[in-house]
Specification:
This protein is α/β, with parallel strands linked by helices. The protein folds into two domains: 222 residues, Spore Coat Polysaccharide Biosynthesis Protein SpsA, Chain A (Alpha-Beta Complex), CATH 3.90.550; 124 residues, UDP N-Acetylglucosamine Acyltransferase, domain 1 (3 Solenoid), CATH 2.160.10.10. Helix content is 18%, strand content 30%. The protein has seven helices and 33 strands. The strands form six sheets. Strands 1, 4, 5, 6, 8, 9, 10, 11 and 12 form a nine-stranded mixed β-sheet that branches. Strands 14-17-20-23-26-29-32 form a seven-stranded parallel β-sheet, with no helix packed on it. A seven-stranded parallel β-sheet has the order 16-19-22-25-28-31-33, with helices on one face. The termini are far apart.
């Protein structure tokens, strides 16, 4: 059984963090999203993976050395500067996937606790050409929405409907089981949308089915989604860890620390905070509901609240970073600077004065 992971997108909504890494390598509680997917595939008995990538993403993945968990990996590369959408990469990987058995397709920018084996079982039992994993959400307007018939067949599929016009609250969770016949529905050599071009045809032919699952599902497509995903996972996976601490440090659970984290005296970390490898925290620092990427230094008396701080960032003394701020890799925030809610700082930028209106510092 093979799985194709779609990982060729540019991640524009996750800038400035995606300027220096693809979405599929964003850390979820200090582990790359791709590794979470590999683990879940391995647990479902699937160890043959094809990564549909751009040349740049392929390079990042190889350099990152993500643990493979027994996966045999092949790469299918999108043409340079020519994204192929959600359907085109499937057609492009046709020869690698083969024509003999059903296969999985997984969107690379979602965290989904899907039972892949159960999805494939449902797919085969229904004699479907395509089966979509479906998940119930409160607001389906951001996603593709399916209306199910009694036998699990999808009788209507609408991409990003207005909220009041959505046919149900069951959304496309970005995980699919396909028969090889799906290749015949995808035009070759151009960008193709599964959701807008392929699925409506399958609905007309009564060949599209749904499989509803109740596990955790989240899309990390925007910074606030990425932050929320980390918060959601924290409480279920955090373990007690030994830390280098000085003085009266307060840890407010749930928190997660990677190797080499050090905390200065009288600092307060948590709740709902993730600190990456070798993050160095000064004294009397306060961090809450935030994600701090590896090798970042946060100096004395600084406060970070509901923000994302990239890799190798240097934050000076007495800095205040408010809710919704995103600091790109290698940026430097000087002493006594305050950033109000919604300030984004691009990679390698230096901020020496307070920013009192939401903006992108480019």
């Amino acid at each position: 059984m093979k799985a194709l992971i779609l990982a060729g997108g540019f991640g524009t909504r996750l800038r400035p963090l995606s300027c220096t890494r693809p979405k599929i390598l964003f850390p979820i509680v200090n582990k790359p999203l791709l590794e979470w997917t590999f683990e879940r595939l391995a647990n479902n008995g699937i160890n043959d993976v094809i990564l549909a990538v751009s040349h740049q993403t392929e390079t990042f993945i190889k350099l990152s050395r993500v643990p493979r968990h027994g996966m045999h990996i092949a790469y299918s590369r999108d043409p340079l500067r020519k994204p192929l959408g959600t359907g085109g990469p499937i057609k492009k990987a046709q020869k690698l996937i083969g024509y003999n058995a059903p296969f999985l397709v997984i969107n690379g920018d979602i965290f989904a606790d899907v039972n892949y084996a159960e999805l494939l079982k449902t797919h085969k039992e229904k004699h479907a050409l395509a089966t979509i994993a479906l998940h119930k959400v409160a607001d389906p307007s951001r996603f593709g929405v399916a209306e199910l018939a009694e036998n699990g067949r999808i009788k209507r599929f609408v991409e990003k409907p207005e909220r009041e016009k959505a046919p149900s609250d069951l959304i496309n969770a970005g995980v699919y089981a396909f028969n090889p016949e799906i290749f015949e529905y995808i035009p070759e050599g151009r960008k193709v949308s599964l959701e807008r071009e392929v699925f409506p045809k399958l609905v007309e032919e009564d060949m599209l089915y749904g499989c509803v699952f109740d596990g955790l599902w989240t899309d990390i497509g925007k910074p606030e989604d990425f932050l929320e995903t980390n918060k959601t996972l924290l409480s279920s996976i955090v373990k007690q860890q030994k830390l280098k601490t000085k003085g009266n440090v307060e840890i407010r659970s749930p928190v997660a620390f990677d190797k080499g984290v050090s905390l200065g005296e009288k600092s307060i970390v948590g709740p709902s905070s993730v600190l990456g490898r070798n993050v160095c925290i000064g004294k009397s620092v306060q961090i809450r509901e935030s994600v701090i990427f590896p090798y970042t230094v946060i100096s004395d008396f600084s406060t970070i609240d509901n923000a994302i701080i990239g890799e190798n960032v240097v934050i000076g003394t007495n800095v205040k970073i408010a809710k919704g701020c995103v600091i790109g890799d290698h940026a430097k925030i000087r002493d006594n600077v305050s950033l109000v809610s919604g300030v984004w700082v691009c990679p390698a930028k230096e901020v020496s004065e307070s920013v009192l209106t939401p903006k992108c510092i480019a």
